[in-house]
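Researcher: Here's the sequence for the chain we discussed earlier.
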Amino acid sequence: DQVELVSWFADLSDFSRTTGEITLRDRAGPEAVGDLLNRTFGAIIGAIAGHGGEVYDFAGDAVLATWRVGHDGDRALPLTRASRCALEVLQLELPKIREELPGLNLRIGIGVGTATYLEVGGVDGQWMFVAGGAPFNQIGLASSAARPGEVVLSPEATRSIDERVSGHVDEKGFLRLADVVPFDREPPGAPAELTPELESEV
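Model: Thanks. This is the structure I predict for it:
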């Protein structure tokens, strides 16, 4: 099956290096790392669900989520929701593995496009769904372009946003997200609603 969607990838910067050091010098390190991941991912999952997204997979110290594009083909709406979620996640006070260590940093990549879902397996009745395609390729590039504490949209996603989403577009077409106007506020430059008096003059 093919489906149009927004892809979202949040990666914990330097997590493997930091936790590796703790695990080597502390007998209780592995348990502390597992607890840290559970609490961190729990907070991120709550934010994703709150913005209408779905968690697709976990990849070590990263979370992969998706937002479906509606039948009308409007990419701007799910991109706005995913971008708003990303900024909210960056504001989360993530737990620390040790008080003396610096807090964790996230970097988030966002893409959009047509994904392909495949059902693979069959051995001993075991089946699983895997997904691939443009939006998943894009988030790898976008998250690699992001610095810790940044959200970066792929060039394809950048071309699909509306005036609610703003930031700096670099020479390669990636957008470093700066702000997302909430749905309960009018975006900059949005047309004002006409009053009955003005409507009668149009």
